[in-house]
Amino acid sequence: MKVVLKEENLKLDAATEATNKLLKELDEKNKKADIKTEEVNAVTEACEEQRATIEAERDIANIELNAALPYLRKAEEAVKSISSKDISEIRTIKKANSTIRIIFDTINILFQKSLDPVVPMVIEIAKGQHAFIADSYDNFGVKNLQG
Which residue ranges make up each domain of the chain? Predict the structure, then answer.
């Protein structure tokens, strides 16, 4: 009986050792999994912060867009109201006034075309002298009339 008990104790010790080894491996794997979980949580948190920032920027952009849309609609209506007669009339102007020059600079800006460098200048608008910037009509605006 002592021999059987001794053999059983040896088996039990071997099984205990194998179990302890397995528990140690599992503990190491759990530690690695915990580290990965922390990394994933950090990335998730950063993504959530970025999502919140993007949503806030989107909301601001939508507010700005909604504020700008009425002006866009008015501008589209104004463009539709321009006739070929109006364009012909502007083409016949030999010396464009300051208002027309500024309008053509604005058109160049809207279509992202070239302009002269910014230089201060006094212009006449509504029968008054006003400090403004030099226009680009002679170098760039008149090209719009030529097609």
Answer: 1-81, 84-145
